[in-house]
Structure prediction request, 653 residues.
Amino acid sequence: METQVRGARSGRPRVELVCPAGHLPGLKAAVDNGADAVYLGFRDATNARNFSGLNFAPDEIPVAIDYARARGVRVFLAINTYPSQAQWRQWCAAVDAAVALGVDALILADLGLLHYCAERHPGQRLHLSVQASATNHQAIGFYARECGIQRVVLPRVLSLAQVRAVIERVDVEVEVFGFGSLCVMVEGRCSLSAYATGESPNMSGVCSPAKAVSWEETPEGRRVRLNGLLVDVYGGSERAGYPQLCKGRFEVREHTFYALEEPTSLNVLDILPQLVVAGVAAIKVEGRQRSPAYVAQTTRVLRAALDTCLADPERFAVRAEWIAALDRLSEGSCHTLGAYHRPWQ
Amino acid sequence: MTHAQQQGARTMRLALGPILYFWERRVVFEFYRAAADWPVDIVYLGETVCSKRRELRREDWLAIAADLAGAGKEVVLSTLALLEAESELSYMRRIVGNGTFTIEANDMGAVNLAAGRTPFVAGPGINVYNARTLAVLARAGAKRWVAPVELDRAALAALLAEQPQGMQAEVYAFGPLPLSHSARCFTARAHNLSKDECGFVCRDYPAGLLLSTQEQEPFLRLNGVQTLSARLYALVGVIDDMRALGVDVLRVAPQPDGTEEVVRTFRGAMDGEIETRAALRELARHAPYGLCNGHWYGQAGMEWVNDG
Prediction:
């Protein structure tokens, strides 16, 4: 049974707002503030936000689904890490359990697991996770042909023109990231965390894991390390951030700077009309690891912006209060268009 | 006898991976002229990192490929790991359709273009973590796969025991670890340049541009849109173990200096003519930021476990 999406119900163009649900309060915050769909995961390594205290036990999911469905909101479930051979049965069991729970779509990354699900549960709607790193129409075409995916979530490496080109050439729906923490590297192919800590998004569902973090007060400032590796030093007045490897300050050519990327969040409000006109099927908010307050606020702002945009894309103008509200929730209290905007690259 | 054991009885072969850095045209031609005489069985050719690097045209690569094939090497044409623009796909389409040489797919887009048309190697850019994935790739025409660098020994062993009949397995056994790709060019960023106006600054860094921590600990090599490990991954200490598990091919990644010595060291170690300790001493000479092998042992990749 598929839940009808809000846009379809009111006759507007269908651009779904897809929001994170790391826990039941987060799910309720997303649903109550205007999400068209929410995505969640099981409380284990089968999903790419495998943080302690986060996600859902299987018996918690029916409550979540009922809450969302009663309000016309669809529920997606992410099983988007890569099972090794030893983990294969456990990941297949997770797929079977998700199908049995009746989620509206499964978000998968592993080619083998997609293939398994397509064969075992031919009626199940499949979304290709951003972790599958499908950045071009040939790759997306492969997953569509082999596994029957109905939607792809694009990695955060394409320019707006490239997103348009992909949409023109594929027969599946295209979902893009609209707001949240910015992955600088193409998702699903980043081993920086594995190199520094032994745990990776692909295999463990974590990046720069909290248990590898250590803080140290020194006369020069606050030092933050990941598995002993110095990721950043914060001076007296600086606000210390989380030591994500791609957002640390390092030395290159005798200069110390954010050599890969600054602590910043992705925010697409500036190009929302272009994305809508290009034909994206959904805009995604990142942040299952964030608080219900974060989910409520981001969902409310993006709902307002998307409704305004869908009503009249040509006259859409970003409101200052939207940006201010989102910046307060952003890493480093600032935002970027990331790869959508060519000069960022 | 299991399939893995049957494969273990075969001879292990040595491969020279594609050049990851941006080297001058003349240097590339000289490198492969020399490599024709080195004891490698397989040579991967072509640009895998950035489509703007065009010192060599397709015709140049095909000419080098023909020379190496003439010298008895198995030649494989490698393709880009990150495909975004239509121009990149059309170039790849021409590589896939070369009619003579096998290709290495580093993106599912390349797999799609090769599927049912030409045999291919699923390169390190393809996420292969389980046998079902391998089976789908085998049906599409994969004849060999390169294990993701994150896989530890136990995960590789479990996968090798289940791999499809006739499939060959390759392990990245020496070189900087390919850690990530991005839309952003980090080498250009370090020079306050945008990717579109990069001026090909990466040509000035034939072994990548070093990124260190604020404690001057070498961490990464910036290689355009790619990051590589500063330390060189070295699995010379576990060659016998890999052979017993059923690994068919070991890959050595080219460095600007010492690649011939590294190749001869691996060959000697594979043939039982060089002791591990001596091999490690030689490899360390070519690794200014040190060696690592942590992934194999299920640890952080940058760690070194003394296996010599």
Chain B touches chain A through 76 residues (CB under 8 Å).
